[in-house]
Design goal:
Elements (H helix, E strand, L loop, with lengths): L7 E5 L5 E4 L16 E3 L14 H30 L3 H25 L15 H25 L3 H31 L1
Antiparallel strand pairs: 1-2, 1-3
Length: 187
């Protein structure tokens, strides 16, 4: 039997979710944030998340929530489309992206202290390649918006949050770009 190390409890400073492991993960399994955003749970300071939100940051959080919910709905559609076609890779990719985008929406709701609105259906293609291209466009829009929100945020917690979202969405953009590149190499 393999000897395991001591298990610890960590918290992600981006989505605030707990994680149990010997070490923090390289990426948050919930929101996709880099491992550097994890702290030991006993060092967690919930008062860091109690602060006044400026009007511009509130407006930006609402816009970010709309982006994340819309992307969640898009990836849900793309996931179901891939599943219906028996595309296991597409199903797994879009399901993972849907979960991360949904987690971002949940994190934004914690800042806004509001309940989650009903997810509105978003159309997608039945074609994996088209959904990948659309996913790339969506991630690019999100990155540009969040980079702007970082500059406009006066709250250090929101600067960190939006900076992390830029990093995470850039990873998503790169994933889509790699898939698109493979399509063109096959042609």
């Amino acid at each position: 039997m393999k000897k395991l190390g001591k298990i610890k409890v960590f918290r992600c400073k981006i989505c605030r979710d707990p994680y149990i492991g010997e070490e923090p993960p390289s990426r948050c399994p919930f929101c996709g944030a880099f491992g550097c955003y994890f702290v030991l749970a006993e060092e967690w300071n919930p008062s860091e998340f109690i602060f006044e939100i400026s009007d511009i940051s509130e407006t930006n959080l609402v816009a970010a929530l709309e982006l994340e919910l819309n992307n969640t709905a898009f990836y849900l559609c793309a996931m179901n489309s891939a599943k219906a076609k028996g595309d296991e890779y597409g199903f797994a990719k879009f399901k993972a992206l849907k979960k991360v985008e949904n987690e971002h929406a949940d994190a934004i709701l914690k800042f806004l202290k509001i309940k989650k609105p009903q997810l509105k259906p978003v159309a997608c293609s039945e074609d994996f390649k088209k959904n990948t291209k659309e996913g790339w466009k969506r991630e690019d829009r999100a990155i540009k918006a969040y980079a702007k929100f970082v500059k406009e945020a006066s709250e250090p917690q929101l600067k960190l949050f939006f900076e992390s979202l830029v990093e995470i969405e850039t990873d998503h953009l790169d994933l889509h770009a790699e898939n698109i590149k493979k399509f063109y190499e096959k042609q």
